[in-house]
Amino acid sequence: MATQTLLPETSATDVARGLSARPGTRETLNQVLAMAWRALKKMRRNPEQFFDVTLQPLLFTAMFAYIFGGAISGDVKHYLPIVITGILAQSALTACMATGTQMREDMEKGVFDRFKSLPIARIAPLAGPALADLLRYGIAATLTILVGVAMGYRPDPVGAVGGWLLTIVAGWSLAWIFTWLGTVARSAQAVQGIGMMIMFPLTFLSPAFVPQSTMPGWLQHFVAVNPVTLVIKALRDLMNDGHFTANVAWALLGCLVVVAIFAPLAVRSYSRKM
Amino acid sequence: MNSSAPTTATDLAVSARGLVKSFGDFRAVDGIDLEIHRGEVYGVLGPNGAGKTTTLSMLATLLPIDGGSAAIFSVDVAKSPHQVRQLVGVTGQYASVDENLTATENLYLFGRLLGLTGRAAKRTAADLLERFGLSEAASRQIKDFSGGMRRRLDLAASLIARPPLIFLDEPTTGLDPRTRGQMWDTIRELVAQGSTILLTTQYLDEADQLADRIAVIDRGRKVAEGTSDQLKASVGTSTLHVRLADKSHTAMAAQLVTGVLGEEPVLTPEAGGLNIALPDANRAADVLIALRQASLDIATAAVRQPTLDEVFLALTGHHSEDSQDETEEVA
């Protein structure tokens, strides 16, 4: 931003001269990075923020594999390719739900008043934490895959890296839905409540844990259009078969569409409300 | 700024016309005009809920303006919010700094957001902490800060970009007298450096200490404006509080006082009390002598500087704390 000189002789219009009309791209990027830095500092001081991305992959992967493995695939080993990819998608969704909840909580704090009063891009306070949360998605994805490998899952090595990346991209993209929810909901609890209502049907009404063909016909129609199904199919193509298929392209496109819709919505509702 | 040149719109740091903000049916700000000159300290005085913070929030682009218009250094607030944000430093009623960060980290973050390089942001942070006497607490998290330290850090954060205009929203509400004095000193230093300051407060003495001109706000309207002397003159220089031994004599005593001073006192009949605005503190004796001669016994009597409440009574005819009352009928 421009530095003002405070010479008494200058008129008020001179003071206002040379102000930038809107933040430039590079400034915006720097502001997003500064906000991400803040979010990382916060994470380091509140390590409980990592509970959901560490415990859930560890517990759910082991639990689901041993409970459903025999019933669904005959044995645990054959179930792993199904359940690992399913839990990857589920972890991404839970982790990004927390992004929205924490955003809402954060917005109620006094410091957000200052962010609003500063000449910074309106997207920075939203995009910064989202950027820092890549770390959380990364942890969730890494742990899930590692637990799977420890239990005997043998994914295609290159595909596993691709799946890992896709999980993070999907988490970051879907987080914009919850960030938007965070800007419109009345409280953090509301975001959490609405988030749960979205998350449970989306993860369980998908081929995450059971083959789609075992569900009733009417349900299969929903499962077919469920965006989580898209991500899971892409993950399976990548990790289990090692192929970059049309499913992967569709999943990435889906992520792009989500960001294109919800990021502007979130920024608009944030700047209007505040 | 005290030149003989006529005041034109371009000399104004803040100019607002007919500002309105409604929340549902409630008009929090109901047509406020403000003209603040460059280099001036302007105080907005009013009780809780008068619309002070709402007015400030609109001028600082934190709330959309529902009616009227406002300009900061001739830049329209509604049309060019990003430019206005570059001209104004805001210090909030509740310290707006990050609880989870240390003092240094807070100032570093705001410096980075304002476009300083990493090194410049660190240097500015260290300088400001030094200047505000917070160097020793630099690496402590804000949640361990006292109220006064928070406010000081908050004010420091508003100065990173050296804005030509600073908004201080109730900078000392909730502080103990000593910390409040320190805050006043800090604000005076800013004034000495030529900053234009818009200050809101609930305390008459604070406005008195700091502000060149004061606007009194009540229920979203400006009810008076002037220097602190002018405002005080409107309520008398001081007030005599008398409580009668026999409450039933209140009306009689009021009549007597009106006879002596030519102005009606404000009554609190339930307690047998009279609040008598004095044009001159010496007139207190006249009133007391008149009461004595009429054999109206008093329980207590005290002469005080006018309080915000009395300014309010004089200007609006109701107490500052009451939202609905019938004092008008009594007064």
How does this model look, in words?
The complex is a heterodimer of chains A (274) and B (331). Chain A is an all-alpha fold and 274 residues long. Chain A has one domain (24-273). Chain A is 76% helix and 0% strand. In chain A, helix 2 (25-45) crosses helix 6 (124-132) and helix 7 (134-150) crosses helix 8 (157-184). The model of chain A is unreliable at 1-9 (pLDDT under 50). By secondary structure, chain B is of the alpha/beta class. Chain B folds into two domains: 9-226, Rossmann fold; 236-330, Lrp/AsnC effector binding domain/regulation of amino acid metabolism (RAM) domain (Alpha-Beta Plaits, 2-Layer Sandwich), CATH 3.30.70. Chain B has twelve helices and 14 strands. In chain B, strands 6-7-8-3-9-10 form a six-stranded mixed sheet, with helices on both faces. In chain B, strands 2-1-4-5 form a four-stranded antiparallel sheet, with helices on one face. Chain B has a four-stranded antiparallel sheet with strand order 12-13-11-14, with helices on one face. Chain B starts with 11 loop residues before the first strand and ends with a helix. Chains A and B meet through helix 1, helix 2 and helix 5 of A and helix 2 and helix 3 of B.
Notable features of this structure?
heterodimer; A: 274 residues; mainly alpha; 76% helix; elongated; disordered N terminus; B: 331 residues; alpha/beta; Rossmann fold; Alpha-Beta Plaits; six-stranded mixed sheet; four-stranded antiparallel sheet; 14 strands; 36% helix; disordered C terminus
